[in-house]
Amino acid sequence: MRQRCLLPLLLLPLAAWAVAQSLRVDHARITDAPPTAPMRVGYFDLHNDGDAAIRITGADSADFARVEMHQTVFELGVARMRALPEALVPAHGSFTFAPGAAHLMLIAPTRPLAAGDRVRLTLILASGERFEIELPVLGACPETKHNQDMGCAEHSGVQQRNGSAK
Asked: Would strands 102-109 and 39-48 be described as parallel, antiparallel, or unpaired?
């Protein structure tokens, strides 16, 4: 009887690992800023190839004192940032962190960051699982309407499938 009660507990890490295996990331990037800027902004697309929705409840990185999820909202024609408590990646769907929408505020870098550097970031899932991704720091990109809208997405060339799960 005791063994039967332990079996579900032993299977929990396997179930959590299976959730992360359905995630993939592309267009990951951190926007250009002076190397000593007190904040940066992170963008990327999350895709869920699994049969169940995945909730992202936070993020952290050794390269920043704090990482916060925010949502840009427009009130009376003025853009304002609001805390985003979670990002829901639907089954067989996507969630995008993009300029003018949901994004990661990367607060107080622990080291100077320049174009070409790479930042490891951990997404925290509601299941307690952690999903690691890597974001390149982009250099300046040409001033076009498309680049302003996309945060130089086409310059990153970064795609990740099944980042490492812990």
From this structure: antiparallel
Q: DSSP letter at 137?
A: B
Residue 161's contacts (CB-CB under 8 Å, 6 or more residues apart) are: 24
| Neighbouring residues of 151: CB distance < 8 A, sequence distance ≥ 6 | 29, 31, 41, 43, 98, 99, 138
Cα(28)–Cα(156) distance, integer angstroms = 7
- Amino acid type, 148: Q
Q: What is the pLDDT of residues 30-46, one digit of tens each?
A: 998 888 899 999 999 99
Q: Which two tokens stand for residue 33?
A: 């800023």
Q: Are 62 and 132 in contact (CB under 8 A)?
A: no
Whether the Cβ atoms of residue 159 and residue 26 lie closer than 8 Å to each other: yes
**Residues 55, 126: contact at Cβ < 8 Å?**
yes
pTM of the model: 0.76
